[in-house]
Amino acid sequence: MKTTPNNSVLFGSQYVKWRNDETLGGFEGCISAIQAADPNFVMGHVISTGLELVATTSSTRLDERLAGAVKQTVELANSQDISPRERLHVKAMELFSHGNFPKACDVWEDILVDHPTDLLALKFSHDAYFYMGAQTPMRDSVARVLPYWKPHMPLSSCLKGLYSFGLLETRFYDQAEKVAMEGLALTPDDAWSVHSVAHVCEMKAEVDKGLKFMEGEGRKTEIYNKGQYEAALQIYDAQASGSMLDTVDASSMLCRLEMEGVCVKDRWQELLQVTQPHTDDHVTLFNDLHFLMVSLGAKESRTSQRLLEGLQELAKEPGENQQHQLAGTVGVPMCQAMMEYNQGNYNQAVELLYPLRYRMVDIGGSDAQRDLFNQLLIHAAMKSENKHHQKLGRCLLVERDAVRPNSPLTHRLMQRARALHD
């Protein structure tokens, strides 16, 4: 396979560690160097275009430049004598660009069967599984290749972060923490391992342990779970919302705080400036739900309605786009439930959300991120005038307490339920 070794490794290091290293010129600097070294290097185009696609910040339906970049990569591949592996990489990228995430993953997995140390195939598939909420495939994809990665190989320790995340998303919390800590012992700046440990503490309701871990290394974390709302807002204000993951997490944090009764002031309007340009993208349902969260919070009803109607239209003829295929049965009713809740129609919100509670995983993201919608259902049930819904809310809280004992958030919700209905 033709390569530009130094720039490709430097790029890979940043992508896998999830860190933009300015001393290397960052992501953009490395990609520019790859393209300058050989403008017709097919894998250079796969890397640059593929990274933009998995960032989910732009839609090939609307962005002619991005669609053109995909087309150019395919044409370059067809005009050159490239290896079978390179050809598969191009195929996977093209499938992903059409929203066919499952088939793109199948192709990346085909690459990994013959080339288990192909880090690009592993990381791209990991991200795609994440967007589909495909928890078990995300875990097993890394497990299958781990034995082939030897300690002397560059970035081999970073696989522990990827594997740990798959373990925690399939509820192997203790093993996930152990593997992530092994990764951090080897690579202290591996963001995915840090991320994984933080998630384990969140899912096990080990709030103090999680705070100590994050603050001990100078890391920042959300602490609304403990009820320290002002501190949480200070952290929110200090963080830049650059990537799409930052943006959706910022949306979620404001929504969680509002459900706790915290006034977030004009932060919804500020965040709307970031999300509103993406209203028509519809790249992932997960993004759509968070964009809707912002437009509802900012009381921008026309944007909210436009997002819903756009998703409804795409659901009618989804083609091979896996996210649009799910829109009609999962995405649209979840959007409608959020809109009903926002309008104070809690009964309708429960009726829409409750039947979907075990299908919400399909919108992608992590268990911790999707928990926002579990909380929304509980709040709607507690606020509903329907006595059956109120009982349902209590049942959901008992269930939640069984899964996450000693959660301060669950206990606060239980107290609120008693105050409302006793």
Automatic annotation (TrEMBL):
NAD among keywords: no
Family under the similarity heading: Belongs to the TTC38 family.
Keywords in alphabetical order: Repeat, TPR repeat
Lineage of producing organism: Eukaryota, Metazoa, Chordata, Craniata, Vertebrata
CDD domains, per the entry: StaR_like
Organism per entry: Amphiprion ocellaris
Oxidoreductase recorded as keyword: no
Gene3D superfamilies: Tetratricopeptide repeat domain (1.25.40.10)
SUPFAM superfamilies assigned: TPR-like (SSF48452)
Protein name, entry field: Tetratricopeptide repeat protein 38
